[in-house]
Amino acid sequence: MNHVYLDHAATSPMHPEVVNKMVPLMLNSFGNPSSIHFFGRESRRLLDETRASLAISIGAKRNEIIFTSGGTESDNLAIIGTAHANKHKGKHIITSQIEHHAVLNTCKYLEKEGFTVTYLSVGENGQISLNELKSALTDETILVTLMYGNNEVGTIQPIKEIGQLLKDYPSASFHTDAVQAYGIEDIDVNALGIDLLSVSAHKINGPKGVGFLYVREGKKIHSSTHGGEQELKRRAGTENVAGIVGLGYAAELANASRAEKRALYNSFKEKMLTIFKENSVKFEINGSQDQSLPHIFNIYFPGTNVESLLVNLDLAGVAVSSGSACTAGSIDPSHVLVAMYGGNSERIASSVRFSFGIGNTIDEIEHATQVTTKIVKRLTT
Length: 381
Known about the structure:
about 375 residues; alpha/beta; Aspartate Aminotransferase, domain 1; Aspartate Aminotransferase, domain 2; 2 domains; seven-stranded mixed sheet; three-stranded antiparallel sheet; about 15% strand; pyridoxal phosphate; iron; EC 2.8.1.7; transferase; iron-sulfur
């Protein structure tokens, strides 16, 4: 059986060149970057070079990059760190109903500490309303955290407009979870008015367990870990040198091939749509078709059941996912689709996410779409 992996938004395989880059480092560059001897200095040099490279990739300064264990820690550090460092200015945070759980659960945690959180609604296209955001802003607002591109439906938020709006609210820092967008979208933190930005390596064909947080110079955050003075006292713990270099090289490869990937992934979407239409498959696209990440495609198949779809696709060798958490024979409703379409919408129980990445070919997409077509027709007859 030919297996096709179309769940890259969950995690993507490491690029072979990244693996080759990391192996010698794991064997030879074992020095602690905080040590002053040769071995430590060599590790420090690798960290400094990678930090500078990643900073350039988003238009930042090298001292604005904090290495972390991935997207979740980056989100936590950005949100909790900003909240604790600025609570004397106010205790109001704004986010949206469709954020990743690394953001939503962090905001819920802060609510227990006495912070007030406004959860912005979204339209059926998955975007927030700038007017609703403006109405929610107060003199007490210290943080606005809104994801760049949604991990379930791919919708891109109006990031530049949000950054422009927040210029009139100097006490409110702007954080964006760019885990799905980095490496596929052209991101310049200064042009977009972003103050904090989260990235994870394993979404761009780097290693798991490493990422970075950009924090604009002058923005105050409190560290969530207590120990040494690594990362300019912002994140204690000995740095994962091989993983960080792997992240840096994965970022280099991803950004260098950005235009090529965008064109390829959009051609995948067109191929899928063509095949579905030719076979008279009933479907609708969830989210925005125009303002969307090219590698994420969330589709509603009326009359199907998401669990049956996922199981049958897996048995046929096609790996996809829903935006839901599967638990012991039941599937919890996707909070993203609920926010977009309402809790009673049939889309919640009949939608799957296809997401593309390294190694996928047009032949694979055609095969997977034909398989999906047969399964959907079988489940709806």
